[in-house]
Specification:
alpha+beta, 6% strand, globular
């Protein structure tokens, strides 16, 4: 849930709505409890907001941790607030990260403040990105060197070299400084979250490959297709996507007849990309429009499909690109993982 929108909406609610939310929350209706916590925050009823937030947080609802932290922060209970906000931020809740950034700024910890603001940007608070993208590198030379080693050795996080690097950060072993370790923890949270998101690209391409193989195996069709709506005619739409997948527009233009052809999931499922920024969408559309027709397979023989995401909200032009072909070969053809 977008906390800002929830607060904006609930701030105008009547007291009767509070009673209704309390009644539903008492029935263990989690969404009602989340709305109730936001309502109390909007009314500056800090004790009530804390009680609801703490209860939600204890049940694993990350918004509750943010509510509890915000309520404690408003009462100047800094150490207690920091614990709740840190827990929420580590679970990718952007408003908690922003609150920690503001708190660190007040205490004079400039570098750590900027890292929390950076995390809030990467976790979905896009308005924060404009304030962080032009910032100077936060990591020291020693920390940057370790990041390069992690990028190489942590394709498998359980690899012994990867585990050694992560252990060095956890124990903050020299020559790393305390600030190095704090900043590295923030960067790695961004990095490994992005690595996790890459799994979506591979999943889309595997699903598409399965659908296309079924078309090729159908004796009535006996060919692949560059019309995504035809390929996914039996696949249900999902609510949220981070990667756009499909085919180059030139391939459909060359091999598919008809004007209503949809070549990408952005065309097919536009409502599933509400969280994808306008600039990122424009850059991804441009990618799918640039592939030359000469590179397109005849669909009777083969195909190439792509999954394209924007993992770096500070630079929406930096795309992460994956490709699959008729032989089920999946590869990352353009690395768009966030850089330190």
């Amino acid at each position: 849930m977008n906390i800002f929108l929830a607060l904006l909406f609930l701030a105008t609610s009547a007291l009767a709505n509070e009673a209704g939310l309390m009644q539903e929350c008492a029935k263990r209706d989690i969404p009602a409890c989340v709305k109730l916590g936001a309502f109390y925050l909007s009314k500056s009823e800090w004790e009530k907001a804390y009680i609801v937030g703490e209860a939600l947080c204890s049940k694993g609802e990350v918004e509750g941790c943010t509510y509890a932290g915000a309520a404690l922060l408003a009462q100047s209970k800094i150490p207690e607030a920091s614990k709740f906000l840190t827990k929420a931020c580590d679970e990718f809740e952007p408003y908690a990260c922003r609150s920690l950034g503001r708190l660190m700024k007040k205490t004079g910890e400039s570098a750590l403040s900027k890292m929390y603001f950076k995390r809030s940007c990467f976790y979905g608070l896009r308005e924060q990105c404009a304030k962080t993208k032009d910032a100077k590198p936060l990591l020291s030379g020693t920390a940057l060197s370790l990041v390069k080693q992690i990028n190489t050795d942590c394709e498998d996080p359980k690899h012994k070299f990867c585990e050694a690097h992560l252990s060095a950060i956890k124990t903050c072993a020299p020559p790393l400084t305390k600030q190095d370790c704090q900043l590295l923890a923030g960067h790695l949270s961004i990095y490994f979250r992005a690595k996790f998101l890459q799994a979506e690209a591979k999943l889309h391409l595997l699903s598409l490959h399965t659908a296309l193989r079924a078309l090729k195996g159908d004796p009535k069709i006996a060919a692949y297709t560059y019309d995504l709506s035809k390929a996914l005619r039996d696949v249900k739409q999902k609510e949220n996507h981070r990667y756009v997948f499909g085919f180059m527009a030139s391939c459909a233009k060359k091999y598919v007849k008809g004007r209503k052809v949809k070549t990408t999931s952005l065309e097919l499922y536009p409502k599933s990309y509400k969280a994808l920024g306008v600039r990122a969408q424009a850059n991804i559309r441009l990618f799918f429009s640039k592939g030359p027709a000469a590179d397109c397979y005849d669909p009777k023989a083969g195909y190439e499909a792509f999954a394209v995401g924007a993992l770096d909200p500070e630079d929406p032009s930096r795309l992460d690109v994956w490709r699959v072909n008729q032989d089920k070969d999946i590869e990352n053809v353009r690395d768009g993982l966030p850089e330190p």
